[in-house]
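worker-3 :: picked Imidazole glycerol phosphate synthase hisHF
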Amino acid sequence: AAREREVTLLDYGAGNVRSVRNAIKKLGWTIKDVECAADIANADKLIFPGVGAFGQAMTILEQRGYTQALKDYIQADRPFFGICLGLQLLFEGSEENGGCQGMGLIPGAVTHFDVTKGLPVPHIGWNDLLQKHPSTLLSQVGDRRVYFVHSYHATPTPQNSEWVLATSEYGGEFVAAVRRGNVYATQFHPEKSGAAGLDVLRGFLEPEATAALPAPAADGNGRPRGLAKRVIACLDVRANDSGDLVVTKGDQYDVRETGSTGEVRNLGMPVELAGRYFDEGADEVTFLNITGFRDFPLGDLPMLEVLRQASEGVFVPLTVGGGIREFTDSSGKHYSALQVAAEYFRSGADKVSIGSDAVYAVEAYLAGGGAKDGSTAIEQISRVYGAQAVVISIDPRRVYVAAPEDTPHHTVKTSKPGPKGEQYCWWQCTVKGGREGRDVDAVQLAKAVEDLGAGEILLNCIDNDGVGQGFDIELTDAVSAAVTIPVIASSGAGAPEHFSEVFHKTRAAAALAAGIFHRREVPISAVKAHLNSSGIPARTA
Ligand code: 1PR
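worker-3 :: tokens ->
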């Protein structure tokens, strides 16, 4: 017999389900892993977090003999909770991977978001739920948003209406949660949806203790609705001169104190700060291992440990960057970029961010006339973990020219003329933490990495970093208008107004800041309140 407070987890090894495990543990439950089809049949409660691509997931389930066991379990109305792909697989089929069959339990097909509607795809971030019925699963969520990350979605139809528990809006209505009897599934990630998400998981695990409240009114008390613009807290991490990993912060990428000591600035401990930002309402937390370009990250066990510890208590998405590239260590052992990334995912990262290596990959891509051979880190990680798991961090620096003809690069007419009165500028990509400029511009890089399979762009700006005078609007506008994938504006936030400015004037989907949060100059809640009062949707709970 199953032990009390034990839930069975179907992890078919295609991606990171560490955060689901952490969330279950946080609620005081233990996990039994499915090792054979009989474990599915014998489960009291089964959680199925789908990760990776649709076709690959179906193939693995088939090979292990799980498909029939799952169908039988669900058709017998036993307690089941599918997450993300774990919802999509219940439908008849998906357009993903050129078309594949699903389990066929719910009528309808899973399709790609329509990119012609001008919305960034993947759909990443915190969105509102439109609850169709009262339920123990969702009613505790109330009016709070939940976290989505996906490029494909199911659509509510008259044929599947008996299943649809909640929908969400993104260029049209899509299925956010389904339910029939004891069978539930959500397109969103409860394990990444903060306190609201933990309430959803509790609603599944402990339905007897959870009341089905009436669905909240859809007007949200008049606040702006829909996909929230994300506010991300960033922790630049490196070893200080005594070898401890600390959160540091530079001005224009210089992280050392001025004056005779020249020490690496220390703004706190990474795990502690990540926990603080989760409590204060950050929509995501990003760790950048800023010396990763020279140190081998798998040799950097403290960073993996930071991630493990942070992910135990932080239930919003975690991104980690720095040193994601192939590497041969001193003993001659070779690691692919995919292996390095896999280690970060296993330790609790939801996304990895690639900096220098993306610039080299794009140089080769441009030299080859845009040919793709699948060998770059971006392609490899995107293929296995999905585009949404691959963020490209760009470190550009402004270069002034008198006229567009003076450079082959993408220029804009700038409102901030250069030192010699130059009217135009472009943004040069750099590698190694800004130490070396390359012959690639930020717009070129963004388009190329999108084509190579990246899911998101973290757009820093060396000139504005740490200056506190606002984001580089011209840069953010140029890059976010050039790609479909979401762009995170970064560098220069000094006040809540800088966030509303970048969202009003550009297509940025998120904005990231470091210094103002570390120094407690502006609370995250003040940024969110300001955004909402400016008519920009922001998640406040
Ligand atoms: O090249 O793949 O090993 O990745 C290295 C990563 O480390 C890149 O993502 C790169 O941006 C980052 N990095 C390298 N050196 C520095 C540095 O500061 N010396 N930090 C660095 C980048 C920029 C932002 C910062 C924002 C907001 N820091 O992360 O947090 O500018 O700051 P603000 O709000 O205080 O203005 P690879």
